[in-house]
Write a structure and sequence with these properties.
This protein has helices at residues 8-24, 29-33, 90-94, 104-125, 148-159, 183-193; strands at residues 45-53, 69-77. It is α+β, with helices and mostly antiparallel strands.
Amino acid sequence: GFSTIDVGNIVAATANKFLHEGWMAVDLTPLKIAAIRNVKNFQSVTTVSLTGHLQFTKVGADGEIKHGVLDDMTYTNQADTYGRMLAITRKDIINDDLGALQDIPRMLGRGGALKLNSVFWTAFLDHSSFFSTGNANKTTGGTSALSSTSLATVYAKQMKQTDANSNPLGAMPRLLLVPPELEITALELMTSTG
């Protein structure tokens, strides 16, 4: 008879390393600029962010401390499922003289990261209610082309962002998001100002 071995955990661990390698081969900027939150199901979920007017006020001679005001801001989101399956037979594996099938876990990991990018950037770039001149976070027209002058304008605009009570947000810009066509220009601008 033949000996039997059970190395499923080793095979899975190796495949997971290749999946991770493929995942990491894709730009993961969405994970740097967005938060990930757990959800219980696939129903639309409302996320609440707390806001408020909590700036201290001078305490008068009577010692009374005034009450602050808390508000909230909401937005909705909905989780979904994405996946891909491959059917590889034992015969396919045995006949793979070139070893091409060993790249499949990497390709699947890369495919997952590519889908994350596709879903994220589609939603991010189609958020006209957030990115608007009324919110002071959008610049359009001839002076908006990426240059030293426009970068200074946008930086100043970012530093002037305020909360609902007109208090400075104090959100320091850390990333400059540009399409591939402007990466070299952005790199030149960022290194020349640093």
